[in-house]
Write a sequence for this structure.
């Protein structure tokens, strides 16, 4: 099977053709937003990383921001900064340049002032958009696609509805030679053995166990033992009996393919197939890491309840502006007519209502993935207005 | 008729897709279509589990085709399956959990 995408100089294929204006640090967010918002077709990439993190977090931020700029959905990028950020705008620009796409770096320090930077920024964005808008989509096999997933607002039926359908879509894409990434290290705690069984090698299984142990050690260092609290009382009230059951429901979204590797946060997979990324379950952090690893489309697999009546999608969905996100909902919402028809892309509540099977919903979701890959806008992409800055995963103290 | 979902052919439990009362006939769905019927012996709330077979004490309780725990007492076909009669292999919960009522 094929989709229509934009070929990039590094051989990857984008499903979107954004000109990204990337802020190098939170001090530069307003400049990046002002430049991008002045020109149709430019996309601001804003985030909350300050310069008071330590080495490991700064390196991770560099990998993330460079990864977002290198993402196949980006045609060209401008990195905007004051000049003194950590990572510096120059480091981010150098890393993006490795993907061979057009990239420019602008700093206040070098531009000799704010207004000079804004003027030059607008000029560059105009040039980049003029180039990008002339690119044509071409057919490519589905093996060029990388999907990411995150489950949110889990309910008693997310495991059997949206997560199961999403898992089947992962399996189908991988059977077509594609790639899929999932994360949420804390969700693997207590069920590492179930995932380790699917690892292609002992080394991969060991890396998975190490990632889980690291996360657990960090939790324990705060004086909390997460194992004693799993499943939570809320989970038990919802029908989950044991930690195995809870983790299996969460893992349902990963399908059944063998686990090819374990990635650091924002690390790109070096082969095709299914990958686990070490990271938090915080939505924005997680999706930013997957986007930096090169996913072109994200599936947001949700339970329902509050999530389906929450009208501020920028907040709960962890918006990553260069990434189309397909939102799937599991629980039937009683006043569905008044609910967010304009918000969810795929309704999987039909599984719970007995109107459709998991196979049928998975088929619809797979078709939606291909349609979105070919350019169909997701509900979230159609929305304009307020944008939530990206939050990146950090593990160290902030000074 | 009430509905429940058997996720994997190997499973000996199904998920109630609506609140089930004792004595209700329950239609079983699978990921690809209907797979029969069962009579509920006890009430099972929405999202909770129903036994599809007799499960002896110490035997495996299966969902998603995997072991989610072991039966701590004999469970009859059609019974409610939860913390009162199943325990994690990996991580037994604190004792008070068994006394919780839902």
């Amino acid at each position: 099977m094929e989709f229509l995408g934009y070929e990039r100089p590094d051989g990857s294929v984008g499903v979107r053709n954004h000109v990204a204006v990337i802020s190098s640090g939170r001090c530069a967010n307003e400049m990046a937003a002002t430049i991008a918002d002045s020109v149709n077709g430019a996309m601001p990439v804003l985030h909350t990383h300050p310069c008071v993190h330590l080495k490991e977090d700064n390196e991770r931020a560099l990998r993330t921001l460079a990864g977002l700029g290198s993402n196949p959905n980006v045609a060209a990028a401008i990195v905007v900064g004051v000049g003194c950020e950590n990572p510096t705008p120059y480091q981010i620009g150098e890393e993006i340049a490795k993907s061979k796409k057009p990239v420019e770096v602008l700093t206040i320090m070098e531009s000799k002032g704010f207004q000079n930077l804004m003027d030059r920024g607008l000029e560059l964005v105009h040039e980049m958009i003029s180039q990008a808008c002339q690119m044509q989509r071409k057919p490519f096999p589905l093996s060029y696609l990388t999907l990411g997933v995150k489950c949110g607002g889990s309910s008693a039926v997310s495991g059997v509805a949206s997560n199961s359908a999403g898992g089947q879509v992962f399996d189908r894409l991988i059977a077509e030679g594609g790639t899929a990434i999932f994360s949420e290290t804390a969700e693997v705690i207590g069920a590492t053995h179930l995932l380790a069984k699917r690892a292609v090698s002992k080394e991969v299984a060991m890396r998975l166990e190490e990632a889980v142990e690291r996360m657990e050690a960090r939790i324990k260092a705060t004086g909390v033992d997460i194992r004693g609290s799993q499943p939570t009382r809320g989970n038990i009230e919802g029908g989950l009996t044991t930690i195995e059951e809870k983790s299996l429901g969460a893992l349902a979204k990963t399908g059944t393919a063998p686990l090819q590797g374990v990635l650091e946060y924002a690390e790109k997979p070096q082969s095709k197939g299914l990958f686990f990324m070490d990271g938090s379950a915080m939505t924005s952090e997680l999706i930013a890491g997957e986007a930096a690893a090169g996913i072109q489309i994200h599936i947001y697999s949700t339970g329902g309840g509050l999530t389906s009546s929450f009208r501020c999608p920028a907040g709960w969905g962890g918006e990553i502006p260069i990434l189309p996100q397909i939102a799937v909902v599991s629980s039937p919402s009683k006043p569905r007519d008044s609910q967010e028809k304009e918000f969810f892309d795929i309704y999987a509540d039909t599984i719970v209502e007995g109107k459709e099977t998991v196979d049928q919903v998975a088929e619809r979701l797979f078709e939606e993935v291909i349609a979105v890959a070919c350019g169909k806008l997701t509900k979230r992409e159609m929305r304009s207005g307020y944008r939530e800055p990206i939050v990146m995963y950090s593990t160290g103290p902030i000074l | 008729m009430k509905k429940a979902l058997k996720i994997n052919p190997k499973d000996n439990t199904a998920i109630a897709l609506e609140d089930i009362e004792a004595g209700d006939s329950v239609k079983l769905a699978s990921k690809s279509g209907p797979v029969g019927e069962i009579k509920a012996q006890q009430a099972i709330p929405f999202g909770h589990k129903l036994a599809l077979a007799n499960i002896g004490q110490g035997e495996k309780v299966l969902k998603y085709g995997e072991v989610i725990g072991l039966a701590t007492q004999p469970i009859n076909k059609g019974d409610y399956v939860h913390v009162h009669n199943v325990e994690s292999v990996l991580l037994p919960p604190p004792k008070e959990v068994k006394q919780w009522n839902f």
In short: Chain B is about 0% helix and 35% strand. Chain B touches chain A at residues 3, 5, 7, 15-17, 27, 29-33, 45-49, 61, 63-64, 66-69, 81-83, 86-91, 93-94, 97, 100, 102 (CB under 8 Å).
